[in-house]
Each structure stands twice: as C-alpha cells, then as structure tokens.
Amino acid sequence: MRVTSVSETDPTVSNPVIPGFFPDPSVCRAGDDYYLACSSFEYFPGVPLFHSRDLVHWTQIGNALDRPSQLRLPPDTASSGGIYAPTLRHHDGRFWLIVTNVSGDGNLLFTATDPAGPWSDPIRLPGVHGIDPDIAWDDDGTCWCTTAGVGQIRLDPHTGETSGTRRQLWSGAPGVKAPEAPHLYHIGDHWYLLIAEGGTERGHGVSIARGSTPTGPFEPCPANPILSHRGMDHPVQNTGHADLVQGPDGSWWMVLLGVRPGGGTPGWHVMGRETYLVPVEWVDGWPVVGELSTDMAAPPWPLSPPAVAPELRDDFDAAELAPQWISLRRRPPEDCTTQERPGSLTLRARGESLDDADVTFVGRRQQHPSCRVRTLVDVTEGQGRGGLAVRLDELHHYSVETSAGQVRVRARIGPLSTVVASRPVPPGPVVLRAGTAPAPMVDARTGPDLVSLGFEEPDGTYVELASLDGRYLSTEVAGGFTGRVFGMFASAASAHFDWFDYEPLES
C-alpha cells in the first residue's frame, strides 16, 4: 500500500510504511525476507501478517489467527479487547508468534513453517502472566518469555510449560508509567532489553537497557528515552512500541507505532496507531535512533515495490474474502458468504444495529486521511436492512443504510443516537457512499476531518445527506486502541453487496 517517490538526486519514501490501524508492530527477518505482525483487538481474523523485501513496501499475506479454534472472542468482548501486541520471531527454521488474548484465553503461542499460513492451533501458556509477551532464545537454546511489567520466566515453547519463578528485570525510568512491549535481543557482546513506557498516548516513548546475560542485570541507556515525541511539535505523536531489525546491508532499523493527530486542540487521530520505520545507528554500544520523518530518505538498497498494485475494489468473485477484510469478534460462514449469490457478498443480520457487539459487519481499515468508499447494496428481498458504516466502536460510528425504499444516515456518539437525515429512493439496489476530507480550520475546536455520507442517483450524481464532524470518531473522544474501519453491515434479514470500492484521495 506504499507510494514511493524517487528522484535521481533525493530518493524518498513515505512514512508510515503501513498506514492505518496496524499497531504494535513486531518484525523478523528470514533470509532476504521480512515479516511483520500487528495487534487486531476485537476483530476477526486476527493478527494481520505482512511481507517485505525492502522494509518499505509491505504486502498483507494473511492473518495468523483465521480459525475459531485459534481465536475465541466471545460476543461480549469489549471493543479494544481481544488480541494484544504480538511478537513474531524466526528461530530454528520455524516462525513463532506469541500474543495475549485479554478477553479470556490469556497468553498463547503459535507456530508455522510459512508465515502466510496455516498457523498452528494455540499452545496455551498458563504460567506466563502479563500482556505484550516476547520470546527469545539464548545460546544454549533456552527460551525466555518477557512480559509487560517487565518480568521474565523460562518457557518451553513446545509444551507451553514454564519453569522457575518470574523475575523482575527492569521497570524503565523511575516514576514513568506502563513499562511494556519488551523485546530481548543478543547483539554483539550484550543482551538488550527494549521497552515502551509512558503509556501509548502522547507520553509514549522507547527506552533500552543492556546486560551481559538475557536475565540481566540490566543497565539503562543514559540517553533514554532513545525515541519519544512527547512535548514536541511533530506531525507524528504517541511514538513507541518498537522492534529492531537488520536491513539487507546489515544496517539497523526500527519499526514502531505512531499516530497522526489533526485538527485543533488537543488534536484527534482517527486512523489508529500506524506502523513507521526509522533508521538506527550504534554508538558506544547503544542504539541511536535517527529522525522519524513522514518523507523519509530511502534506505541504501534497491527498493522492491509490489509488481501488481493492491486491489482497491472487490467484486466478491472469489470463494473466500481477501485478508484485508475483518469482522467483529467472529465470522460464521452462514452469516457471511460469497456463495449464495455469485459475485456478491451476502450478510445475514445478527445484531439489530451497529450498537450491538454481535452485529454482522465486514470492513477494511481506513488508510488515507482523505478517501471515498462506495458499495452497491440490495436489500429488496424481504425486510432487509443494511448499509455502509464508518466505525470506531459500538458507541462511536456513522452509517448510511437502506431499507424499505429509504436511505438514512445514522450517527452514534456516546450515549446519543439519532437519524440525521433520510431520503426516499426508487426500488432496487442503491449505491451508498461515505468519505472523508480535511475540515476547514475555524478555531481550536475544529476536528481533523469531515465525514460525508449519502447515496448516488442512477446517473451517478452524489446526494450528500450529511457531513459530520470526524473528531467524534477519534481515539481521543472514544478511547481505546483501535482506528476507523469502513465496512458493510446487515441489521435486519439479509443484505447483498455487489462490490465495494475504496479510493484514496489527495488531501
């Protein structure tokens, strides 16, 4: 999904390297290939997986947790619950993925020979406590699992059994909250313990310590935090939750999460926490992080953009949904299928509205500040009702839906829910449309963007029914850890979607 701008004198690449709601990146290298995993929270399938040859251009190759036996998210799983902070590693010829399911199953370990899948059923880790688990192997093959806090225990990754007691290693800077996202590395003569601290909001940062063994004791870097934008006037904020990796030429790089706030004060980010890339140099045995730029100098090796541009339109001709499509908590095949009406996605209603945790929903992440989304929906059979939504969670969403010859725009903002506008339409399928564009700056309360919702006449003319303030679909308003998702839903009987089109626009 990357657009690379390259000139002969000053080649640059766009950052974030994976835009949109793809937080908590963990990266590993296997030969000439790089693989990266992200958190997925209440969405199914879980843990999106990406592949790259150059650390810049990333292609989603699947989702590690794509079967109910791997990912159990009960209907009452809270938004921003579910799957937290994976660590992805390649060791002894296999890929290892360790995650936390905070909605019931605790810490889990999965393995695969091919990161595109299939991944194993989970190895349960009842002796591993805390979120954000990391795994690392020392020179004699002992596996160590380190979790937020930051504590560590010895782990048998084949059985899930732990031995010994959990030892506290390091808690970051004195008085700084939330030491988490630990990653342990053996680089040169030292073992390095990289952590996030300060919370995943504006105080977020990356700190590091080193020791002579994987169990410490650890000496903090005198320059900690080695990366943070707290208190800075920078377009990327909340920087943290990092992972180190070597580039093709042996240089060092770091992937991390950050957000792009917009609008007035305090600034609102709407696409969630995104994955960024930044260079790293080693000075006196410590990593020194380079400038994080949204227009970054290209790495000093040949770039490998995908041979085929990613599909932004889906006509639902395939038997299975592409990996970018996500649903809420589960996706029973009887409620979501491309088999009932060839060339269409059929959704059968479970919940009665987007306010319900168990609503039938299929969406994709917003990845551009300005975009236009369209879908052709048919609800003419029976008492169907369905539509197109811009979702952050059950309490914060906008939608345009059709039923019984009417198109309606609904808005849910916290405890308030209302029909904003409605219009009759002729019988038959209708093209519904939603989009985002920057909001004109008026004062400090101006939101980051405007969300437009409406439908298209048979001749293609767009009828806007509402233009709503985008800040109410932001993390700063709603809370939590996710970002916006554009998706299709059914809230009564069935709805058939002939196609779905996502179009990035110039800001």
From TrEMBL:
<dbReference type="InterPro" id="IPR051795">
    <property type="entry name" value="Glycosyl_Hydrlase_43"/>
</dbReference>
<dbReference type="InterPro" id="IPR006710">
    <property type="entry name" value="Glyco_hydro_43"/>
</dbReference>
<dbReference type="InterPro" id="IPR023296">
    <property type="entry name" value="Glyco_hydro_beta-prop_sf"/>
</dbReference>
<dbReference type="InterPro" id="IPR041542">
    <property type="entry name" value="GH43_C2"/>
</dbReference>
<dbReference type="InterPro" id="IPR013320">
    <property type="entry name" value="ConA-like_dom_sf"/>
</dbReference>
<keyword id="KW-0326">Glycosidase</keyword>
<dbReference type="Pfam" id="PF04616">
    <property type="entry name" value="Glyco_hydro_43"/>
</dbReference>
<dbReference type="Pfam" id="PF17851">
    <property type="entry name" value="GH43_C2"/>
</dbReference>
<keyword id="KW-0378">Hydrolase</keyword>
<feature type="domain" description="Beta-xylosidase C-terminal Concanavalin A-like">
    <location>
        <begin position="313"/>
        <end position="503"/>
    </location>
</feature>
<dbReference type="GO" id="GO:0016787">
    <property type="term" value="F:hydrolase activity"/>
</dbReference>
<comment type="similarity">
    <text>Belongs to the glycosyl hydrolase 43 family.</text>
</comment>
<protein>
    <submittedName>
        <fullName>Glycoside hydrolase family 43 protein</fullName>
    </submittedName>
</protein>
